[in-house]
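pls read this protein.

:::
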Amino acid sequence: MIRDNILYALYALTQFEMLDEVVPINQFGKMIRYTKELQEKHKIEVLNFGHAGDGNIHTIILKKDYSDET
């Protein structure tokens, strides 16, 4: 499964910070849009994946040359 291998691929490619949010299923779209807005506003790269059936979203902030403040 792709989901099972996403983290292994990320470990090989980059450093990242993973957040683990629980969101009501009917708010998934809103949460994804919000993370995309943050991505554009702060010029960061964000990847979202998760378990839609139980309301779990993993938001991954890919680390590049970001300062600690970012």
